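Example record

One chain of 396 residues, shown exactly as stored in the release files.
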Amino acid sequence: MLCLASYEKGQRFLEEAKQQGCRVLLLTSQSLQGKWPEGLYHEIYYMPDKEFEWNLLHMVQGVNHLCRTEKIERIVPLDDFDLEKAALLREHLRLPGFGETATRYFRDKLAMRMRAAESGIQVPPFTSTFHYQDITDFLEKVPPPWVLKPRLMAGAMGIKKCYSKEEVWENVHRLGDEQAYFVLEQFVPGNIFHVDSIWFGGEVVFAISSAYGTPPLEVANEGGIFTTETLEAGTDVDVSLRAMNKAVLSAFGLRDGVSHTEFIKAHADGEVYFLETSARVGGANIADLIEAASGLNMWTEWAKVEAAAARGESYQPVEQARQQAGLLVSLARQEWPDTGDFNEPELVWRMKKKHHVGFIVKSPRRERVTELLKMYTERVRRDHHASAPPRDKPGE
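Predicted structure tokens for this chain:
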């Protein structure tokens, strides 16, 4: 199993893949040398950062040489930015999994919207940015505000919110040759949700829905505090979100793996719209939130899925009794914040990261989780919170 990693993440995946008896090879960036704990892999290989990010021809050549002594049977991208690399290598080596066209549905925001719309799934009004007349027609027909989104970025990176036609055109022209790599859509105010799911054999075998507090776009652009909490299973909103998640990922062709998918319930009409999806574990410590609520670690389960699919074996996750859980993450003014005064019995996880503060709480009652998140948000804002300018690209 060859794993690709642009960032230091997925340690639980690597650990579990070894436990499953896989020979684990890790290909990553030179700048991450020394960051990966020994024992997670059998062999590790490095490429210079820019080569790893951009020079796919050199990557293919390197893997060609690797294949002379290693029989690679599965390729797993551990981050959004590794999906295209994995797809190209699969196509070249003729291995199972998403090729380049199928990968577009999980990376390219324009491809996502077009595929969803073709499949009868509601999406906010949108247009490509190839042709000026298409942009003009869209701005005449669809009322503001609008958002200009990079097609291949992750999360809220690079998104520009525009309130006038002039502002849209200023941003479009500023993009220059990058213009075609964006999608323009109507900004729909509403409550944003995410569904995190595990798929095996083309069927969803686990799904859990959650509601963001402040929308991620506002957190990124306005320096807010990130929160999300799980929804009670079986409620109307949970059932509708999980049904829509199944429809999206079935249309996109996900068979074996994991996904983090986002939806918005519009304030104006109460309808649920698909926003975007990914063939990966959710970021921002969402995997820890899900583990607190269900006992399942998405990285670990993903490794089990990959191993079972490769061997033609069965797979079924073993979930613990479901509880409600909430997550809070914020930048902090202090290098190592002292959070000793956060000591409620429902607190089950505390972040240990420079200039960050974060917590996970869990309870049988969602009302208690909501109450704690509100209280923790107020205390973090008063004692620790800091903000930073939004990033347009990774690493900025």
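Notes: The CA atoms of residues 43 and 126 lie 45 Å apart.
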